[in-house]
Specification:
By secondary structure, the chain is α/β, with parallel strands linked by helices. It has a domain of 117 residues: Rossmann fold (3-Layer(aba) Sandwich). The longest helix is centred in the N-terminal third of the chain and has 14 residues.
Length: 169
Amino acid sequence: MQTRLRVYITGEPGVGKTTIFLKVIDKLKSQGYSISGFYCPEVREKGQRIGFKIKSLDNEVEDWLASIYAKSSIKIGKYYITINEDIINKIKEKISKSEIIGIDEIGPMELSVPKLKEIIDYVLNEKPIVVAVVHRKISFKDGKTFVVTYENRNRLDNEIFNYIISSIQ
């Protein structure tokens, strides 16, 4: 598989970007593609967001990415970056072995962690096929960007999946 394909998913907060991303990843896995990467779900406590986890797409690796409770030298908004370097190394190892890479999200928080930014740069520069959720204020010149809205979110996963399949076959 020598195709170079970049698919970006963006939209306003809470519109369903992660849901669509995970549906697309699941559909690709069901077709037998080797996929790895990570996603960063929010963590809520009593209805309030208290931070973010980082999880490998196979859910074998998980840890805190950022929290309002932890203290560290890197702070984005109200969140302190707390990621463990061992977690980053495990995710990087998984990524090196896969043909399709999924990332949710490429945003200010993820890019503020030097080792995580290294992985993102490596993936974008070296891996043939990337599907990534991108913060609404970040854009890339290469690839195709899909904007999630309340109007299209119930069908966009199929549109993205079909675009990827038609582009790599």
